[in-house]
Amino acid sequence: QVQLVESGGSLVQPGGSLRLSCAASGFDFSHFAMNWYRQAPGKERELVASITNGGGGPNYADSVKGRFTISRDNVKNTVTLQMNSLKPEDTAVYYCHVERWERGSPRDYWGPGTQVTVSS
User: Fold this and answer.
1) Structure confidence by residue, pLDDT tens digits, 80-107
2) What does DSSP assign to residue 43?
3) Nearest residue to 7 via CA among 48, 36, 40, 27
4) What are phi and psi of 10, to 5 degrees?
5) Confidence band for 16, pLDDT divided at 50, 70 and 90
6) Where are the beta strands (DSSP E) in 1-120?
7) Which of the four pLDDT bands, split at 50, 70 and 90, describes residue 55?
8) 8-37: average pLDDT
9) Bridge pairing between strands 78-83 and 11-12
10) In Å, how far are 9, 48, 85, 106, 119 from 102, measured between CA atoms?
């Protein structure tokens, strides 16, 4: 059974940093790309960062480029989002995500999310 559990969300002042982690289990983690999404109140969920199964080719939303870094550990089955220079507009629930193909169809798995609030 696929399980994703995020941690690390908190209240932080503008300009501060946070490190989010996602612990994955129930699937062969090293075979799948992993993603971080976020959803702010009243807005659609948006893709923040992606990383390939081998840890290469990270991609970022334009709004976080140069401030956020995604990484993964295929031994510990974790994916991490280092967030620096945080802005109030980064306030959102952050979700870990993986897409798997099961019986010929893509299936999305999400963690429960972790709240990040950037405010003075």
Assistant:
1) 999 999 999 999 999 999 999 888 999 9
2) S
3) 36
4) -170, 180
5) very high
6) 3-7, 11-12, 18-25, 34-39, 46-51, 59-60, 68-73, 78-83, 92-102, 105-110, 114-118
7) confident
8) 97
9) unpaired
10) 31, 25, 39, 6, 41
